[in-house]
Amino acid sequence: MEKRRFNEPKAKEYEELVISFNRVTKVTKGGRRFRFAATVVVGNRKGTVGFGTGKANEVQDAVKKAIQSATKNVVRIPLVEERTIPHEATGESGAARVLIKPAKAGTGIIAGGSVRAVLELAGVKDVVSKSLGSNSKINVVRATMDALTSQRSAEHIANLRGKTKEELFG
Question: Which letter does DSSP use for residue 120 in this model?
């Protein structure tokens, strides 16, 4: 077994993608105070994805906090044939709604902006999506995560009903 030195960085288990960072202003009697808010998505492209937010006085610190938050909030998503989702789902957060549908092999990720980022890092290769309602980036990410976490595999449904997967499909 190879020993790791203290100054060597640990191998990263997740890829990170910064969705947005905002400059937030607080007006005080002494003037304006600027801080930065970051939204980050992390995933391993094999069915695991999470998102987080962070605020700090510097952009790098905000991104670092957001990455820590995202790695704590990682969820596992069931994938069919390691490429698509099991069934159609709609996720909601605030006024943002995201519809995701499974697609045939070779379709690719048909999604825009932050929905695409979440689906790519989750490891979904063939999917069709539509963003409905608000375009707020963080709410669209939350709605996408909501839709992904509502996914149930055929094996899971069969277990809940006390049947085998073959009995489900006749």
Answer: H
Tokens of 133: 């309602």
**For the whole model, what pTM was predicted?**
0.87
Give the ranges where 26-112 is alpha helix by DSSP (H): 59-72
Residues 115-143: pLDDT tens digits?
999 999 999 999 999 999 999 999 999 99
Whether the Cβ atoms of residue 108 and residue 102 lie closer than 8 Å to each other = no
Q: Does domain 78-157 have CATH number 3.30.230.10?
A: yes
Q: Where in the chain is the domain with CATH 3.30.230.10?
A: 78-157
Other Cβ atoms less than 10 A from the Cβ of 168: the count is 12
Tell me if the domain spanning 15-75 has CATH number 3.40.50.1360.
Answer: no
Here the tokens at position 71 are 């790695």
3-state secondary structure 4-29: CCCCCCCCCCCEEEEEEEEEEEEEEC
